[in-house]
Structures are given as C-alpha cells and as structure tokens.
Write a structure and sequence with these properties.
Blueprint (H helix, E strand, L loop, with lengths): L1 H8 L6 H59 L2 H10 L18 E3 L6 E3 L8
Antiparallel strand pairs: 1-2
C-alpha cells in the first residue's frame, strides 16, 4: 500500500509562467501569420487592379490616337477643299478693309512701292 500511496500523493505540477510565455508566443506568431496572409492578399488584389487599370489606360490612349487621326483628317486642307467643292461649307472672301495689320503698309508717293512704317526717327 505504501507504493500506491506514494503514487497518489505525488502530484504533477505545471509551471504557470512557462505556459503563459508559450501561449503568448503562439498568439504573437498566429497574429503575425494572419497579418502576413492579409497583406499578401491585399498586394495581389492591388496588383490585379493596377493591371486592369493599365489595360484600360492603353485602350483609352489607342482611342485617343484614333480620334486625333480623325480630327487631323477632317480638318486638313484637302478635306476643307472637298467640302468647299461639294457645297457643304460656304466661304466668302475677306474684304481688304476687314483685315487688321499690325504694321500697316504705306505706299511711297515717289515710286508707288509699299514700305513698312517704323518708329525710328530720321537722322539718328
């Protein structure tokens, strides 16, 4: 009986400090693992968003180039001449009195040629 009493009296003790440290470390590792998974998921999502936005930007740039070519084609001199000949656009000549000149032309009275007026005084 003595042996069975010794076994019953012998209690196994658990050190509470060591268990607390292991539980705290396990919680920290789990939190770090979850945040790593969350961050990598977020990076993947942002990367796919950036990729789709880049494809959309390329498509818009291509549309912009097409529209630029169409504008250039429709506003060219040949297109204007064609519209003028077809009668779509009517143009009238500009009268000489309606033209504003920054440097007015003056006819020299002696020989009838055009000269530009300058602000320089004679004899300097």
């Amino acid at each position: 009986m003595r042996m069975s009493q010794k076994r019953k009296n012998k209690k196994r003790t658990i050190q509470l400090g060591v268990v607390t440290i292991f539980v705290a470390l396990a919680l920290i590792v789990a939190a770090l693992g979850l945040s790593y998974v969350g961050m990598t998921t977020k990076i993947q999502r942002r990367g796919s968003q950036i990729g789709s936005l880049e494809h959309e930007l390329a498509a818009l740039q291509m549309q912009h180039d097409v529209v630029d070519v169409q504008i250039e084609k429709l506003s060219s001199r040949a297109a204007l001449r064609q519209k003028l000949d077809a009668g779509i656009v009517e143009m009238i000549p500009i009268a000489e009195t309606s033209i504003v000149r920054l440097t007015p032309n003056i006819i020299h009275p002696a020989n009838g040629e055009l000269r530009v007026v300058s602000n320089q005084t004679i004899g300097q």
